[in-house]
Amino acid sequence: MESRFDQSFLSPFYSQAYERFARAGLLAHLGRPREALTWYASFAQNSLYDLIYLAPSYLERGKIHADLGETDQAIDCYEKFITLWSDADPEMRARVDEAEQRIAGLRDT
Known about the structure:
The protein is mostly helical.
């Protein structure tokens, strides 16, 4: 769906955050990591409604960069995820722990 900037910024329907996140995940799953990274990067500062996807997009970008052998970029993404979710609810803490473990593994190689 095409929309004007003001529509995508002010409306959860026009921002299409869920659709963009799902598309990025599908592209990653289909073996198209560079395209997936572009879509995950679209959550940086587009809309207020994108914020719920910002931290998860960093986690997914970290995984992709790690798979591509781009260690510095992967660590950077994981660290951004950890910063955003440092006060995560207990049921989500496992994701933060996972990111910390991935950083440790990347630094050991």
